[in-house]
Amino acid sequence: MSKRHRPGVSAASVLRHVEEVVVATSGEDAFEIVFAVAAARIAVAREMPLRRAIAEVVRRHPVLDVDPVADASDALLARVDELLARALLEESTLDAVFESLVPRVAKSDKGQFFTPRHVVDFVVKMLAPTKRESVVDPACGSGAFLSLARAAGARAHGRDVDLRAVRVARLLALAADADPHSVQRGDGLRGDGLPVADVVATNPPFAGRAPADGFDVARLVRTPERDVLFLERALGLLRPGGRLGIVLPYNKASGAAFAALRRWLVERARVLAIVGLPRETFLPHTSQRTFVLFAQKRARPGAQGDERTMLVVSERAGKDTGGEPIFRRDGDLDHDLDDVAAELRPFLQAEGFT
Predict the structure, then answer these.
(1) How many Å apart are CA 269 and CA 203, to the nearest integer?
(2) Residue 136 in contact with residue 191, Cβ under 8 Å?
(3) Ranges 13-17, 266-270, 313-317: which has the least confidence
(4) Residue 293: is its pLDDT beyond 80?
(5) What is the mean pLDDT of residues 211-235?
(6) Backbone angles phi, psi at 154, to 5 degrees
(7) CA-CA distances (angstroms) from residue 224 to 105, 133, 209?
(8) Does domain 107-350 have CATH number 3.40.50.150?
(9) d(Cα 234, Cα 237) in Å, to the nearest integer?
(10) pLDDT of the residue at 14
């Protein structure tokens, strides 16, 4: 058996193998088959026969919009179920489903590059949401930030324009015994429905344009891209004193064209930390350099001259230059964000961020 047909150890490798099996044995939509099996096994009793379990999840949870995959053979469903059972043991599985099965070109067109789980974990740990707090992600994708916020006991709400991403995020909510309606489908830049947030954790789309009417930053940046608009939107969703963790392209921190944007930001938010991420972080989808901004919304605009900001650079992404994961001898991903967190957390605590 050739190597590319042998499932790997990670959830993403297993799911790539599932996709190969579906493509090789049928003309069905791989995403719909995998999503139906995953939803049935997560939201319905594991012991129930698979075909019946899929019918039950369709009946019980219409919000998930599960395809009954009536044209898929029992043999194909059983094979997918067998392969997926291994991946479902890992908490990152549903993110990997979406990451693996949404065509890469669709992601590039939308500027959607879904955040690696160790980066999500780092951001949420630094934001440290509590059980009494509300966490919002206005560009939630498949709901990774929301999932970890719920695990910390926080109330989590999200919105995304991509229907498949929303379905996965709703399944994640259901798996955490949360209301799947807490994830909305729609343009996260506009509209009501998202609550006032204690914490915003997000990785907005990097590329593309959106109507900028009504946005203050349109005065500062010529034809602002969506990530700039999402920065303003995130601050608008926060209560005074609320905490922000947002992934942005590197040019927003260093480019001369965005100097006015940075002045606008520090007047409206206390910038506590900028954490540079390695170029490999979002490979194989993009090699664009990014950073995580941690900031706290001011009660009223006005920068303070004696404020400190911590600048940190992560050097190990846990991926090689081809985007393949690199593991340490203990089996964990070879990244250094735990080391970054050990340096950054005391500073954030001392500055009253958490």
Answers:
(1) 18
(2) no
(3) 13-17
(4) yes
(5) 94
(6) -80, 160
(7) 23, 31, 7
(8) yes
(9) 5
(10) 64
